[in-house]
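[agent] plan:
  1. take the single chain provided in the ticket
  2. run structure prediction with default settings
  3. attach structure tokens to the ticket
  4. add a short note for the reviewer (M.T.)
[agent] executing step 1
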Amino acid sequence: MRVLVVEDESYLAEAIARGLRRESMAVDVIGDGLEALEAISTTDYDVVVLDRDLPGMHGDQLCARLVTDFPRTRVLMLTAARSLDERVRGLSIGADDYLTKPFEFPELVARLLALGRRSQPARTPVLQANGVRLDPFRREVARDGQQVQLSPKEFAVLRVLMEADGGVLSAETLLEKAWDANADPFTSSIRVTISHLRKRLGQPWVIQTVPGAGYRFGS
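[agent] step 2 finished; step 3 output follows
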């Protein structure tokens, strides 16, 4: 899942990003509302974690633009405002969810996962195909009933492939969905990660290379 954290308190933004990356999410961080709008215009984010008091463009304005121009992207307002009126206003301008500071990190993760599911076509939360079972909430993977230990990046790539429901995903798409904006587009990380995934999941291989096109999950 690709997440954009729009928060001008850099220490908080980076702390959130580190935690979400440990949960196998691809996370970018921006501290300015206008810069965030530009990034959202060029990158397909599943969820935006949005502070309200931002330089460049206020969070309320940015949220309204997202609702109008990028309706598939979900918005979680993250703010210190605690009054009922403030929360109602945040939701009335189009935010999908609202979380006040300070917050418990597991709750943020659970809310983001729920919003991520809403940004995609309806599907069961647990993904199952070809003997592989992936539970995004428990972050567990099993092959034919046997637990498989994956790194956060391997888990993220497998989830993206399984969510494609047999469709072919290019290396560029995998890079966009499972890596953050600092990823080198010419990196060998995708090939290496796919190789590790195949070995961990075992034979027969369930991740296929489609020459000239990319990768797909399925035997």
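[agent] step 4 note for reviewer: Residues 127-217 form a domain with the Arc Repressor Mutant, subunit A fold (CATH 1.10.10.10).
[agent] ticket updated
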